[in-house]
UniProtKB/TrEMBL annotation:
It comes from [Collinsella] massiliensis. Keywords: Endonuclease, Hydrolase, Nuclease. It comes from the Bacteria. GO terms for molecular function: endonuclease activity. It holds the Pfam family AP_endonuc_2. InterPro entries: IolE/XylAMocC-like (IPR050312), Xyl_isomerase-like_sf (IPR036237), Xyl_isomerase-like_TIM-brl (IPR013022). Residues 27-265 form the Xylose isomerase-like TIM barrel domain. This is AP endonuclease.
Length: 312
């Protein structure tokens, strides 16, 4: 299992030193790293970053765009062509950096493309602009996976790409083989989606390019330790990751604000291992047999069996 976690959680507990953080990643048993671009990269040349990762036995999974400053009223969909152009340039730079450091996935979360007020944006203009922007990025880096991470709200009251449905419409219209989605578990709970459903639908189409695992209660992006709030939904989600042979990194997008970041990460690793083993103990074929029975009673029996199969 390829595992990664949030660098910023580790920055909270010490200096912003990637060498120190990567040493701790290696020690806790992580295998991969996602870098926020440009936030975590700064002036570090790609070759130096690659060597730093290698010195800790880590690989780059990919980079995730972080738009700040000028972009508060929209990124790729900004009404000002010069700002939208700047967002697009940042995406191209992120692709170049990702490739040079040995990663294969560029994740684009558009936190500011959205709206707060009725009559504030032209939905069709933004839609068309985003379609063209994604095509441009996909065609610029056909060797990389370009992945849309959606979230229903926050930063804006309404995000533009807010759900599995809109993300799926976008994939269909952009129509590029290297465009897919990153599913963030908490974001899906916020939208009252069942994470497993999106995992099955996108995973079955070869469009699941990234997974951000965490947990929450559905109102906010709580970023709780995985499996702590909705373990049954997490088990169902992991079942579909296994069913569709998901082989990219699982990134713990959790926010330990009080907890020690290393201890928190160790809990995430222990939890995903336990849930994974429980599914194997019951058997993927058996899980599928229950699903095929299409019965709430059979599902409830399976849930008890899965709980009983959870062992350290
Ligand atoms: Mn995320």
């Amino acid at each position: 299992m390829k595992l990664a976690t949030r660098i910023n959680s580790y920055f909270r507990s010490g200096d912003k030193n990637l060498d120190r953080v990567f040493a701790q990643f290696e020690e806790v048993g992580l295998t991969h790293v996602d870098l926020n671009y440009p936030e975590h990269v700064g002036e570090t040349p790609a070759e130096q970053m690659k060597q730093l990762l290698e010195s800790h036995g880590l690989k780059l999974n990919g980079v995730a765009l972080r738009f700040r400053g000028d972009f508060i009223n929209g990124e790729l969909g900004n009404a000002d062509p010069s700002i939208a152009g700047k967002a697009l340039r940042l995406c191209r730079e992120a692709c170049d950096y990702c490739r040079a450091v040995g990663g294969d996935t560029v994740t684009i979360w558009l936190g500011f493309d959205g709206f707060d007020y009725s009559f504030q944006i032209d939905y069709t203009r933004v839609w068309n602009q985003l379609v063209n922007a994604y095509r441009t990025v996909c065609d610029y880096a056909p060797d990389l996976k370009i992945s849309i991470e959606y979230k229903p709200y926050e930063e804006r009251s309404y995000a533009f790409i807010d759900s599995m449905g809109i993300a799926g419409m976008m994939l269909a219209e952009v129509d590029r083989p290297n465009l897919g989605v990153t599913l963030d578990y908490c974001h899906m709970l916020m939208k009252h989606e069942n994470p497993a459903m999106a995992c099955d639908i996108f995973g079955g189409r070869g469009k699941l390019f990234g997974v951000h695992l965490n947990d929450g209660y559905g109102v906010m992006d709580d970023g709780l330790m995985i499996g702590t709030a909705s373990p049954m939904k997490t088990l169902e989600f992991i079942y579909y990751l296994k069913k569709h042979s998901y082989d990219s990194a699982i990134y713990f997008d959790t926010f330990p604000t009080i907890e020690d970041a290393e201890e928190e990460c160790a809990q995430n690793i222990a939890m995903i291992g336990m849930l994974d083993r429980a599914l194997d103990a019951v058997g993927l074929d058996e899980v599928q047999r229950v699903i095929d029975a299409n019965s709430g009673i059979e599902a409830a029996k399976l849930m008890r069996r899965l709980l009983c199969a959870c062992t350290e």
